[in-house]
Amino acid sequence: MTRARRDPRAERAAAALPGAARARFDLFARCAGGRPRRDPRMEAAAQRVDGAARLRLDRAQTGRPAAAPAPSRAEPAAPPAPKTIVMAAPAFLVAVVPDLAAGRLSPHDRQLFGAARTLAGADGGVIALAGAEGAELGPAGADRTARLAGPEGYAPDARAAAIASTMAALNLRHVIFPETPDGGDLARRVAVLAGEPLFADVEMVSAAALMRPAQGRRVEQRAAPARLITLAADAVAPYAGAPREARDEPLEPSAAPASAILAAERIPADPARTPLALADFVVSAGNGVTDLETFRAVAAALGGTPGASRVLCDAGLMPREAQVGASGTVLSATCYLALGIAGAPQHLQGVAGCEHVVAVNTDLHAAMIERAGLAIVQDAQVVMPALIEELARERGAFA
Amino acid sequence: MKVAVLLSAGRHPVSGRGALPRLEAQAIRLAAALGSARGLHAGPDADVVAEALGRGLSQIDHVALAAGADPVPALAAVLRAAAPDVVLAGRRGQGGDDTGLVPYALARALGATVIPDVVAARPGSEPGVIEVEQALPKGAARRVVARLPVVLTVHPAAPEPSAFAFGQARRGRIERLDVAAPAEPAAAAIAVAEKSYRPRPKMMRGAPAGGSAADRLKAATGGGEAAQANVMVSPEPREAARAILAYLRQIGVLAPPPGAG
Questions:
Q1: Could you say which of A283, B30, B94, B238 is the most buried, measured as most Cβ atoms within 10 Å of its Cβ?
Q2: ipTM of this model?
Q3: Domain range for residue B132?
């Protein structure tokens, strides 16, 4: 987080030239570690396009030498880091309880490992308490993993009891939860069960102190790291070091408490009724779509929530709630299918959170085509009926 | 079914004045569908929560407490005496530590089950049972059947609060309860240093550390390395449709074709 402190004396001593009768220093060499010096003339020469009668410049060429990481003068030629960091006997353990929604680590889950590494320092180990097995916990920064045994289905009390008993058994110094509906609920159950205070919604993490907002965000509280912590989203950078071992730590199975929950049934989202901000898959129409009946049929057939660009909403062809972009809704969808959308910057801001983008557009050079993982340069008006036909054909082949 | 609605002295999100939190107004609406409801507030004075009378409660019990005191022992004592089947609460307070622990601590004291993020509740098919609907991320939901007593916290996606009615607010009564709360040993509190809040910039996902403004814009609009992964120029419409469906299935947002698995 903080910049390394400079030691001017050591820097000057390092720049001293040996062998001279009086002290001489090569002070220019010190600059080599910092930003490389620019040569505007050379850059302009590199941008010049040959053969044109008048001066033409290709601004895409920078003409700068490729930035090579300058070796640090203080520690020359450090040996390459081992491929996997193995921590044989950590002095203490910091636990992370990722949500693992659908068995995958979300970006928020990865940030927990960053915070845990900060709190663990060089001596401590990070242990991931996961309900399900995850192969990617080592690269995310876990030294140990422990599988929490518990009944299948919705049983938050049993999970909380398992975590509380693990806390006592492994003598965990800190336990970090994400401040999500699931993680926050679990953290509070554990706090009440273990009788420990909870430092909730932490927005800044350092080895010495944590910071959280309180009193409706009017004050911030700073305290030494508590035992139970929930971490706000996008507050801490994820762990970025070399992969770690993620060795299995055996746990004593604990008895699950009696539950008053008689039945729990998950109801999947109805894409037609889901608000755009919550939707998982959005099918969106832009100015390249004129036949909106077909567009609605495509959205329904694919099981996506219909969205639209500003142009269609301004024209009254789609409701304002369907608008995607900076002045409409900012999406958090997994996939975005853009039909006939060129991709204005304001629209792309609304799509920034989407993991995958599919674009259908006639313009090869549209920004949306550049953003997309799968780009189709074709008229959306002819692709939409083809999509419906293809889905119907698959269904017909089965029947 | 006896219902208690926990009311807290909230703050208006824009003006900062005392106001009833929106979630608690929504809780009153959920409570009306379950049975007779009473409000319960613990704090120095009850003027702030009087708005709840206009939102549909006919009576509020007020437990006088010093500002900054832990409300859980007093609330637990009152609720133990009243023994409601359902306790409804917002997610977290807005004037104290705002940890959101009060519903959980109360549930522990009362031996009740906590069900968070509720958007709908109705009595179950048999007595002593409640059926609630919980909001999950990405628009999904979970229907939970639980044995009473329960403590429910309300999700913002619950039905809108009912409109404020002035006559109802005039008719409603606030009753002051004097509770000799047992002086329970307070849980070891964390020693904190407080100062006024300063918003920090949110970490930007995917932005390189120390990159240029162009790099940050690229990260903000999502133009990453995945760009230009797969471009089909002027394909046959049918071929394009097949490619789109195959891609959607590969990333898992579209169910596999019928008969494939």
A1: A283
A2: 0.88
A3: 2-177
